[in-house]
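It is time I had a proper look at our fold encoding. Can you supply me with one protein entry, sequence and fold together? It will help me judge whether the discrete encoding reads sensibly. Leave the record below and I will have a look:
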Amino acid sequence: MVKRQRVVIVGGGAIGLAAGYFLQKEGAEVVVLERGRIGDGASYGNAGWITPMLSAPLPAPGVRRQVVRTLGRSSSPVSIAPRLDPGLAMWLWRFWRHCSPRAHAEGLRAMGVLNRRTMSLFDELRRDQVEFSMWQKGLLFAFLTAGGARAALSELAALADLGYLVPQSVMGSEELRHLEPSLSPQVAAGYLLSEERHVEPQTLVQGLADRISRDRAIVRERVDVTDFEVRGRRVVAARAHGERIEADQFLLAAGAWTRPLGRKLGLRVPIQGAKGYSFGLRTEQPPLHPLYLGDSKVGVSSFSDGRVRVVGAMELSGLNTDIEEQRVTSLLEKVRKFIPGAGMEDVYDVWTGIRPLSHDGLPIVGASNEYDNVFLSTGHAMLGITLAPATGEALAELMTTGSGPELLRPFSPARFRTS
């Protein structure tokens, strides 16, 4: 009888749990170790978007100019907290280098290929009794100028070659507001990506945890991995405050915390934590669709019971979740241009979470360079929900067969040996 491989997954967010789900399907014995509580990490306050068409790498032509022009403004969508961090300086230099047309086009194609099965995989999860709330309303882009809408739509043209349904033209104000009555008269144009979806993210994470637990996976909360036991090129156990947890394979999927976790093994995981903000918003007319407020780079999602969540900002400030009131005020002011009537008294449940960003804008998924039985799955930036099933399925194939699908090649940790 062939011995079942025991896999310890460090990180109980959408990425780690989706990997656990597919590893279990491949016959592995799965143990998930989460430093907090399931659903309380980056999944708690995000918009829950499933958006394969918004998977372009963050380093892109024009980003340098845009960041330099707006950096330092309180309303800037991107901010960098000044601090003595040589690692951040090197990361920024490498990010800058990847803001080229060629690197962006290659990254976009890799992400497009990885995402081809995203929607069918979410449907498979539901058929397999993973319980979560999901809506298929598309993603509506809204802009204050028609020129801004046309420019943003033109950036999606390359996705048509990969089989994605790209709108042919933008809608005017009247047509847009007929589709989405919650929008302000200031909104001039926009377009609908009709195939995109959104979920209530906590329900997805909890649904995955419940599903694998029913099949005898072990999901443990408030277990902080403090060290590893190593023999040669293999890790034989994780240590958590004195407890020794053995396994045949280890997957580090702790989001932005994968970098300090990997450091315990001498692994170089070149990601930076980017803080994002979100808050609940009481409004008399909740949007019918998820909204991307294109001029402001702010997202809005409506969930069950009319709850509305606003998400935005990107702050490179390390692994801290401190809340700056000015950031919240700035986000609300941006929203008010598109959805009128909301004031600070309507804001509740303010939250920050840390997104893991690689300098080339691509996830880091695959075998580590230094160990024969340690794997990584991190760097998904704002796409943790979108990419969780696709990366989980591909990674499970790699870990259980030793030969992963070709679509994982652009995301391999091996690419950082020469970068």
